User: Which sequence fits this backbone?
């Protein structure tokens, strides 16, 4: 297929790269060439003055640093000696998270694959910074060969282009909403290829009230919570939307006041609420109040934080989700009622005052169909090669077996 130049933008490569990708030989996972490239990318981003304005870019650069990649490699040491990349991976990044495409690319490379990555159609500054750094690295002769293994593209919805790129791949990785995944799955892929999908997910935070009140630094906790939520405008699948408070009534009331006051202080000078988001949040509140019994809006100084108190945990909580700082709140003395509503939709469980081992045992002993990640508040957006319950290095590489 001939790609029309005016319908596709190449951000980290030129069009001819695509023509030869299927004939490239796969690398072993964590190949030296790949690790060196990622370290060069890290160094470029960490010294980029523009990048320093964007915490998510710096976090990505920190993720790619040599020490972290070597640490990851060590954890896979016993599992990758007989593996090769599957060939070509086609990554379709979500439209509302600027840096996700880069993490997906890294997983494809570390698994040993050539990567075609569709970046967000929206021109996020972060996307441009990362792609510029990649282009600069490819000007170095050291990485001339690797240049043919990476194609970062941007295009508006176009099934013909998606079909062409899909025809080249051995694995298609789709990040997006359920409807997006459904539509893309209609586009065929080669017989031996398969789809790896990351669909709509819902995340929550559980707080042990008494333990929170004993914390010595509520401002630090508020900053961590801001990073989980407002930094991505609550659009990330890992951003908590349901707050579950555990403890006595007295402890919960005191903890809520302390927590939300600190969060409000943290965000009021750094977050601007767009009018359309304010309307969306009010609509979500009204819908919830109409549909459910005992719903009440908790009083706050302004609408930067919308707290919707619910008396019971009901199925389909996720239908009342909204960006921009909208939270359902539920109080209880234990997590027992929560177990009854957890579905496959639930992804990340963040916590304050719990032992992660206890939360893991609670999930396993209740045989819950959802919750794939357990992280402390402040770490929900931290990416790793295990995501949504998938080990990406394993899924994106193949085993060369002997008997």
Assistant:
């Amino acid at each position: 297929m001939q790609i029309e130049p005016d319908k596709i933008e190449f951000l980290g490569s030129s069009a001819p790269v695509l023509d030869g990708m299927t004939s490239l030989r796969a690398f072993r996972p964590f190949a030296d060439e790949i690790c060196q490239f990622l370290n060069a990318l890290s160094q470029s981003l960490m010294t980029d003055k523009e990048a320093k304005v964007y915490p998510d870019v710096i976090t990505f650069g920190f993720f790619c640093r040599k020490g972290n990649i070597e640490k990851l490699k060590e954890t896979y040491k016993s599992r990758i000696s007989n593996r090769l990349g599957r060939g070509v991976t086609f990554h379709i990044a979500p439209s509302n998270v600027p840096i996700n495409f880069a993490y997906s690319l890294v997983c494809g490379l570390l698994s040993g694959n050539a990567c075609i990555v569709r970046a967000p159609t929206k021109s996020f500054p972060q996307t441009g910074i990362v792609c510029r750094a990649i282009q600069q690295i490819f000007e170095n002769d050291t990485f001339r060969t690797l240049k043919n293994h990476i194609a970062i593209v941007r295009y508006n919805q176009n099934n013909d282009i998606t079909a062409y790129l899909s025809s080249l791949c051995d694995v298609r990785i789709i990040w997006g909403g359920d409807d997006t995944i459904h539509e893309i799955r209609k586009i065929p892929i080669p017989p031996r290829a398969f789809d790896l999908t990351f669909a709509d997910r819902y995340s929550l935070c559980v707080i042990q009230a008494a333990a929170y009140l004993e914390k010595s630094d509520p401002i630090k906790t508020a900053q961590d919570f801001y990073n989980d939520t407002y930094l991505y405008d609550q659009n990330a699948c890992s951003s908590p939307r349901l707050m579950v408070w555990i403890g006595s009534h007295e402890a919960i009331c005191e903890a809520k006041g302390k927590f939300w006051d600190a969060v409000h202080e943290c965000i009021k000078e750094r977050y601007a609420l767009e009018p359309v988001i304010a309307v969306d949040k009010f609509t979500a509140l009204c819908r919830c109040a109409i549909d459910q019994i005992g719903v009440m809006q908790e009083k706050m100084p302004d609408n930067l934080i919308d707290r919707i108190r619910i008396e019971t945990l009901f199925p389909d909580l996720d239908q009342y989700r909204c960006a921009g700082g909208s939270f359902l709140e539920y109080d209880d003395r234990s997590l027992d009622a929560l177990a009854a509503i957890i579905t496959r939709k639930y992804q990340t469980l963040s916590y304050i005052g719990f032992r992660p081992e206890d939360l893991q045992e609670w999930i396993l002993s209740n045989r819950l169909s959802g919750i794939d990640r357990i992280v402390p508040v402040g770490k929900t957006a931290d990416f790793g090669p295990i995501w949504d319950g998938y080990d990406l290095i394993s899924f994106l590489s193949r085993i060369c077996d002997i008997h």
In short: Residues 253 and 382 are 30 Å apart (CA to CA). The mean pLDDT is 93. The chain has two domains: 5-200+388-399, 202-376. DSSP finds 15 helices and 17 strands in the chain.
